[in-house]
Backbone:
């Protein structure tokens, strides 16, 4: 049976390099230690050290800290040509540099996570832990994670960020190891549609006009807040013809100029859509836009029977054209709903 190894502080002077590295593997965890040593020592030695670390049963906390501190010091190579500064400033700068290098190593696993995954990784942790993780992120991910936190928690995290330097290195390393293990249990990031107001608007626009109006009415009853957000997402054919003359002229000039409209055809989308509409609305929206030649050629189908389904289909097509014109900025939704806002 392989003998288990124990190391106390008094053993430090006699420890060989291989044993110290094995202790680092024990303290840091195999995954983290491998990222820090791979490429610096041969694969054979890495394997030997890994096996040695598995035999280590106990390392005194004071000895752990001493070996860790020795390793952190070895990470830094100082440039003798730098400007001379006071010893206190130098000590503080060196300490901050060490912390930055250590954090870059031990929190490297965060680079493989999305901001959403990081949020779920830390959402149940204390603000002090959340602060440490948030501080390791780039600016965009940092803000993404902070926005997801409860407002009161976010305030505490901001305060804790200013206190990170007060945390002992060994505690930071332990935390990083625990979080890295926990991160492996997170669900993989999945691209899926997030719904929201825009999705509801898209659904309403795809529905036939009568169904969209009915659906919108149900939303108004069940969710007034959502109704307030999406009530202008759909407009009916009646909305397009009910504005004041100057607004109707703006809207219908754009609509009849669309490539899908051919006024010389009989019937055409406009004549079909206006079937059954009062003469006053027809004159305000269409007749005033036509040239004398177009008026002579245009058949408003007043004496021609037309199936209701054809009329509703034509109105739906006109609405689709209007949606496209709104998207392209030719006119706005507020133009269409202007009649509702006139006092």
Residues:
């Amino acid at each position: 049976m392989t003998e288990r190894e124990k190391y106390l502080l008094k053993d430090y002077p006699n420890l060989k390099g291989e044993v110290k590295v094995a202790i680092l593997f024990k303290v840091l965890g195999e995954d983290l230690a491998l990222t820090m040593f791979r490429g610096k020592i041969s694969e054979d030695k890495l394997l030997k050290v890994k096996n040695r670390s598995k035999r280590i049963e106990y390392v005194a906390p004071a000895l752990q800290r001493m070996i860790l501190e020795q390793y952190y010091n070895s990470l830094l190579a100082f440039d003798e040509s730098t400007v001379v500064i006071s010893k206190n400033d130098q000590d503080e700068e060196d300490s901050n540099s060490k912390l930055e290098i250590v954090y870059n190593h031990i929190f490297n696993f965060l680079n493989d996570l999305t901001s959403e995954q990081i949020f779920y990784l830390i959402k149940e942790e204390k603000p002090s832990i959340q602060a440490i993780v948030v501080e390791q992120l780039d600016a965009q991910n940092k803000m993404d994670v902070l926005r997801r936190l409860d407002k009161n928690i976010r305030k505490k995290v901001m305060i804790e960020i200013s206190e990170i330097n007060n945390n002992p290195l060994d505690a930071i390393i332990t935390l990083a190891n625990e979080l890295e293990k926990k991160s492996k249990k997170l669900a993989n990031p999945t691209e899926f549609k997030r719904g929201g107001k825009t999705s509801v608007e898209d659904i309403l626009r795809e529905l036939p006009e009568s169904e969209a109006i009915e659906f919108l009415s149900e939303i108004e009853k069940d969710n007034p807040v959502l109704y307030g957000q999406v009530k202008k997402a759909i407009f009916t054919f009646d909305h397009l013809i009910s504005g004041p003359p100057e607004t109707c002229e703006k809207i219908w000039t754009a609509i009849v100029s669309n490539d899908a409209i051919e006024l010389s055809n009989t019937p055409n989308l406009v004549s079909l859509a206006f079937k059954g509409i009062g003469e006053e609305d027809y004159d305000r929206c269409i007749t005033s836009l036509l040239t004398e030649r177009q008026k002579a050629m245009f058949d408003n189908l007043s004496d021609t029977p037309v199936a209701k389904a054809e009329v509703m289909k034509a109105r739906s097509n006109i609405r689709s054209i209007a949606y496209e014109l709104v998207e392209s900025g030719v006119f706005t939704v507020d133009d269409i709903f202007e009649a509702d806002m006139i006092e």
